[in-house]
Amino acid sequence: MKKIVLMGNPNVGKSVVFSRLTGAQVIASNYPGTTVDFSKGKMRLDGDLVEIVDAPGTYSLESSNKAEEVAVKMLGKADLIVNVIDATNLERNLFLTLELLESKKPVVVALNMWDETKHLGINIDVEKLEQFLKVPVMPMVALTGEGVNELVGRFNSACAPEGMKTKSEEERWVEIGHIIKKVQHVTHRHHTIWDMIADATIKPATGMPIAIITILISFWIVRNIGENLIGYVFEPLFDLYTPFAMSMSNWLGHGFLHDLFIGKLIDGEIEYVESMGLLTTGLFVPFGMVLPYIIAFYLMLAVLEDSGYLPRLATLMDTLFHKLGMHGHGIVPVFLGLGCNVPGALSIRTMETRKQRFISATLMAISVPCMAQIAMIFGILGPHDLVYVLMVFVTLMMIYVLVGLTLNRYVMGESPEIFLEIPPYRMPSAITILKKTWMRIRWFLTEAIPFLFLGVLIVNVLYAIGFLEWLGVLFAPITEGWLGLPKEATAALLVGFLRKDLAIGMLLPLGMTAMQLVIAATILTIYFPCVATFAVLLKELGVRDMIKSMVIMIVTALSVGGAMNFILIGA
Amino acid sequence: MILVETAITDIETGKAATIIKLSGGYTFQRRLRTMGVREGKIIRVITKHPLNGPLVVEVENRKTTIGRRMAQRIMVEV
Question: Is the pTM of this model over 0.90?
């Protein structure tokens, strides 16, 4: 099958072009480095099925991070290259274009974001550009789909440009200067009030307060959407479901099957969080407690991503993150990780060095709880007092900074400085945001819920054979003696490997005090990532670094847990 | 007019200058150039973050955040 590879600088809209061509849905955002691995899709071209590959963005064919390496590898396998260019940024995009032309592969150039050139006062002579590059050039607007069919129409006529010699870097820049002079005309544009507002969000004096307000408002919105979805949608649904579950319970009678599907009745009633049956807790935790917050979080994240705010936040946070051995881009794994640690772990590829990747992966695994877990922390601690919820988060933030400072000192290697393009602000489109949110929710439904069911199943089996009790006794010196928790909490730590949300739910029937719950919830975040995250981290870090990372996690969990027990409870 | 060669980090916030020379490693220089920071371009300092934090510069209407030590390798003249 013919292979068409999309290549271009970061944040030029390759993923949007990819979606347009294949109809496949991939995540696209307004910040560089959203695509860290390639995605494949298929499209029909004159009746033949061809494969389309969306490569990560790269500034040149000499890669400077792992994501770019992937892009360069994809080039070798291409039968046709679609070079996606940001038309508002023609000059610097042409460097990669010239490199691609020298690769002696057929190239078609897609001049994306064509609509934005007009109000930026940029005028590009497409015909002349075609003459210079000797390959088809097609203006387009991937977001609206304008020009997509015309682009596809040129795929078959594309051939490798003739007489392209390999040039030195300097020669390329000279040629680009020459081309730009002939094909592009820019009318000078004065700075508007909008530019001043945009600048205010990146200057420290104004940007910091704006960042704090933005983050607080975002959390407030997430909480409100989440709570309202629970109160008005999901809880009423479960109220309708309860009579059905109760009759199921009566029909099953007593015994293992009842325990497995319905779980334990408490005062003759189903308690959705505590009963621990597949059809009670197994459904309620994901749908009644976690999903509403997942929806809320991903809606908010999509708005932040597509507006172009995240690179600005990265700039503002750079000084702090540099002290932790990373640079400002380190906020990306944190933000993605707050949704789910798996995409967070994947995004560490955009960091340049091993040291940065190791630190950002370890810190994320230790102190960034995913939304499923956060929802459950709110669920069990919220009824006590919001102060307790806050205690968990403040502790985790402190750990992030303290462990980061330590790792920066002792992990060998370079931590290069930030070097990040700041994209212009864009108005997020409602349809794109809904689509993207849906894709991420679908991921949660298909990937996370099976694990949750598996978790409930395992708990029931292990409980029935007496393993959990045995494990509790075995670890009692640590849980009871050191952490000040009931020995049954060991079971939650075990289940936490599978799903942390379920694990936190398991703390509820243990009758702990609010302080004990704070300690348990914090340790559950720190001690180990869930199995899905673990698998990704292992792949990204390699066995040796993963083992080091795990040692750090366990040591941190034990020392923080012990310290909290000492300070909060005074053991 | 006397031209003074200086690093972009010494340019006042809000002021512009012309890039005359890049120093530092080969890969680093190429990255700067592919991100638009090249000899002959006019570069404006949008902001400098405190505590040796990064600079935000603008070249041809595009903003880039650059770490302080990297920025010291961008020589400009006013």
Answer: no
